[in-house]
Amino acid sequence: MRVALGLSYRGCAYQGWQSQPGGRTVQDALEQALHRFVGSPLRVACAGRTDAGVHALQQVVHLDSPVLRAPFSWVRGVNAFLPADVVVRWAREVDDAFHAQKSAHARRYRYVLVQSAVRPALLHGLVGWTHLGLDADAMRAAAAELLGEHDFSSMRASACQAPSPVKTMHAIDILRDGDTWTFDFHANAFLHHMVRNIMGCLLAVGGGARDAAWLRAVLRARDRRLAAPTFMPDGLYFVGPCYGGQWGLPEPLCGHPVLRA
After folding, report:
1. Residues 132, 210: contact at Cβ < 8 Å?
2. d(Cα 154, Cα 148) in Å, to the nearest integer?
3. pLDDT single digits (tens) 26-69
4. Cα–Cα distance measured from residue 140 to residue 172, given in angstroms and rounded to the nearest whole number
5. Does 51 participate in catalysis according to the annotation?
6. What CA–CA distance (Å, rounded) separates 105 from 170?
7. What is the DSSP code string of the chain?
8. Phi, psi of 109 (to 5 degrees)
9. Which domains are delineated in the chain?
10. 142: Cα within 13 Å, side-chain hemisphere
């Protein structure tokens, strides 16, 4: 029985998604809960690995279970063994051809940023922060330079294991609500640290240190050393993967506000 699960998690306490010897990852927490629920070890494959401190609104995983369970049983049963900051939101039985990563045709990320004179205390770990004044029009002009298919080597971490740096950015939407900014990224796939590196560049433009022409030159140079520093992980959310309708899986929570500062 192949099962797909939709998860949400707060990444503050974890060293990212992927399992590590220390056991403090989201994958470790989930697989331990699955083991206790099913009674035997299970491995999962995810739609997109997230870094330390990064959150997810809808991470999707699949697993091959040796036992049959109803969807509601997967949700309630696994949640009984998960920590409070990780939750299974839904479960679906899927065809053996489904793969959480390979069947996704696109992915969405959101960055939530608070602009204020002092750093936020109550939302620490859940939002990014800048004290700079930001120019929305300048950032939107810079973001437009990233749309379409490009070699994103300038936005790629040195440890990135993706076979190709060429990705297609479908949309970048930048919205402001009081002191809270949301940056929504929609692409066919993302490189390691790609969104955080783009955020560093957009804030350099929004704060007036650079302009849109600079970002165009950085992108074309394909040189990570020319881009802005990697921005903090705190406000980054994996909104979720996008699948074809044939799988019958819930869509990412694109309209979810995430937070209000």
Report:
1. no
2. 15
3. 999 999 999 999 999 999 999 999 999 999 999 999 999 999 99
4. 8
5. yes
6. 12
7. -EEEEEEEE-GGGSS-SS--TT--SHHHHHHHHHHHHHSS----EESS---TT-EEEEEEEEEE-SS---HHHHHHHHHTTS-TTEEEEEEEEE-TT--TTTT-SEEEEEEEEEE-SS--STTTTTSEEE-S---HHHHHHHHHTT-EEEE-GGG--TT---S--EEEEEEEEEEEETTEEEEEEEES---TTHHHHHHHHHHHHHTTSS-HHHHHHHHHHT-GGGSPPPPPSTTEEEEEEE--GGG-PPPP-TT------
8. -125, 155
9. 2-103 (3.30.70.580), 106-238 (3.30.70.660)
10. 29
Q: How far is CA 64 from the centre of its chain?
A: 24
- Quote the longest CA-to-CA distance of the chain: 58
Q: List all residues 6 or more positions away from 253 whose beta carbon is below 8 Å from its beta carbon.
A: 57, 58, 239, 240
Burial class for 179, CB neighbours closer than 10 Å (0-12, 13-18, 19+): middle
Whether the pLDDT of residue 257 is over 90: the answer is no
Question: CB of 165 within 8 A of CB of 155?
Answer: no
In sequence order, the 6+-apart residues with CB closer than 8 A to the CB of 155 are: 191, 193, 194, 197, 198, 201, 219, 224, 227
Q: Show Cβ contacts of residue 209 under 8 Å, excluding neighbours closer than 6 positions.
A: none
Return all residues near 94 (Cβ < 8 A) that are at least 6 apart. Answer: 2, 3, 4, 62, 247, 248, 249
pTM for the model stands at 0.94
Phi, psi of 189, rounded to the nearest 5 degrees: -165, 165
Residue from 51, 85, 95, 151 carrying the catalytic annotation: 51
pLDDT digit string, tens, across residues 108-117: 999 999 999 9
